Automatic annotation (TrEMBL):
UniProt-recorded Gene Ontology molecular function terms: DNA binding
Organism: Bacillus wiedmannii
Keyword DNA-binding belongs to the record: yes
Protein name, per record: Transcriptional regulator
This protein's UniProt keywords: DNA-binding
Matches recorded under SUPFAM superfamilies: lambda repressor-like DNA-binding domains (SSF47413)
InterPro entries assigned to the protein according to its UniProt record, in alphabetical order: Cro/C1-type_HTH, Lambda_DNA-bd_dom_sf
Domain HTH cro/C1-type: 32-86
Keyword Manganese: no
C-alpha cells in the first residue's frame, strides 16, 4: 500500500485515508470567518492571539486544515464562543 513519490520518500497515507479525510472535511463547517469578521478581527490579529501563523488561520477558514483540539479551544476563546458552536457538523 505504500507508494513512493521517488525512490527514497514513502507516501504517508493511502487513497482510503485521503477519501476519509475528504469526507470528514466535507461534513464539518466552521464559523471562524463569520465570527472573525463580525468582531472586526483580521486574520493576522487572530493568528497573533492564538499564537499561529496567518496562513494557518486562512487554511482553517477554507477547510484545508483541521486545527488541533488545543487550537480549537484558543480560537473559540478569542472569538467569544464555544468549540461546538465554532465547528458545525452538517449532514
Amino acid at each position: 500500500m505504500w507508494q513512493s513519490f521517488d525512490n527514497d520518500t514513502p507516501q504517508l497515507y493511502t487513497d482510503d485515508v485521503k477519501t476519509s479525510l475528504q469526507v470528514r472535511r466535507n461534513g464539518v463547517k466552521n464559523q471562524i470567518y463569520e465570527l472573525r469578521t463580525e468582531n472586526n478581527i483580521s486574520q493576522g490579529a487572530l493568528a497573533d492571539k492564538c499564537k499561529v501563523s496567518r496562513q494557518t488561520i486562512n487554511a482553517i477558514e477554507n477547510n484545508k486544515y483541521d486545527p488541533s483540539l488545543a487550537l480549537a479551544f484558543r480560537l473559540a476563546e478569542v472569538l467569544g464562543t464555544t468549540v461546538d458552536k465554532l465547528f458545525l457538523y452538517k449532514l
